[in-house]
Write a structure and sequence with these properties.
The chain has 342 residues and is an alpha/beta fold. The protein is built from 13 helices and 14 strands.
């Protein structure tokens, strides 16, 4: 079975080898990376990996800011996608945690009855007080999350999707495929159940990329490490809007994903094999050196940012931020169960 993972990256250098090695463990055979505006060595490392046949690396074709959709449009004409049995569209901080069989994508497909698409529900893993970036597998560092069935007061949680080659595809979306016309492909959630009809036909704009999470993870969960360490989150923010002078930093994104109420270490079943796979990749001295360079640039960027008052303030704000999602905190205040912050 040929399975191609498609992703867009910018300054993800320290995390590339883990993601590739993990995906290969679960059955991904090919990786198609699109990169743009990298300053941490991501593109150089990807070029070296591509030279060794470990991925395909292309510059993002987007001329505006719609990087992901333009890349997904381009991906449809790449042989690594057109010749694949399945396509997996995901980000480098997202790991498909499969609970059935031998914990691979083929086992998930079999458990779901070999549909034309499988949409797996997110579980957002908290920072949980981890301040310092360390060069070690992310899946081993973070193991607390929100209640898997509820996120920020919502029972419907976002998904990402595996798509089979015969899906009646109009275009790939970042979270789900969109089908042609009134086609109704065989499409399941991560428990092998048919996805809700309104999701299937994209009838409700609020539910185009989400549906109720309860009972949807029997066979697989999508672990999303959107925060990682506080160091890495500061560096991640530098990729976006850094002009925060004289205005407060909005910590909503952080708080919505930093709920540590639930412990889930199930993905750590992959850790022993993942560590062995990383050792194998780093036996190539050039790959190892390029990875180490990305790590050092990541740390240097953190140090550069923390020399700025606005990033010192951001760090302090996130240190002091409540681990209750804003929506949950507002509900408790409305019910009189909690006092508003002074």
């Amino acid at each position: 079975m040929r399975i191609t993972a498609v992703t867009c990256v910018k300054n993800e250098g320290p995390f590339l080898l883990e993601w590739i090695a993990f995906n290969r463990l679960i059955g991904v055979t090919d990786h198609l990376f699109y990169s743009n505006d990298c300053t941490d060595g991501t593109d150089t490392l990807l070029d070296a990996l591509a030279d060794r046949g470990l991925c395909r690396h292309l510059p993002n074709p987007a001329e505006g800011r719609n990087y992901q959709m333009e890349a997904l449009k381009d991906a449809r004409r790449q042989d690594v996608v057109t010749e694949a049995d399945w396509v997996w569209v995901a980000d480098v901080d997202e790991f498909l945690n499969i609970h059935v069989g031998d914990h691979t994508i083929p086992a998930l497909i079999e458990a779901c009855g070999d549909p034309q698409a499988i949409s797996v529900t997110f579980q957002f893993f908290a920072n949980d007080g981890v301040d310092t970036f360390v060069d070690a597998p992310v899946i081993g560092q973070f193991h607390r999350s929100h209640n898997p069935d509820l996120w920020c007061g919502e029972a419907a949680i976002e998904v990402k999707s595996l798509v089979r080659h015969d899906f009646p595809l109009q275009y790939y979306g970042a979270h789900r495929p969109f089908q042609k016309g009134k086609a109704k492909p065989a499409w399941t959630d991560g428990s092998g159940r048919k996805v809700p009809h309104k999701f299937l036909v994209a009838a409700n704009p609020r539910r185009i990329r989400r549906f109720p999470a309860h009972g949807a993870r029997e066979f697989a969960t999508l672990n999303h490490y959107a925060l990682r360490s506080l160091d890495s989150y500061l560096v991640k923010n530098d990729r976006g809007d850094v002009n925060r002078e004289n205005r407060a930093f909005d910590d909503t994104y952080w708080r919505e994903r930093n709920d540590p109420a639930w412990e889930d270490k199930s993905i750590q079943r992959y850790l022993p094999d993942l560590k062995k796979a990383l050792v194998e990749l780093k036996k190539d001295k050039d790959i190892s050196a390029l990875h180490d360079d990305c790590v050092q640039r990541h740390i240097a960027k953190r140090d550069e940012l923390l020399a700025m008052p606005e990033y010192q303030a951001m760090q302090a704000q996130l240190h002091g931020a409540s681990t209750l999602p804003p929506q949950e905190e507002a509900m408790l205040i409305d019910l009189g169960l909690m006092e508003p912050a002074a």
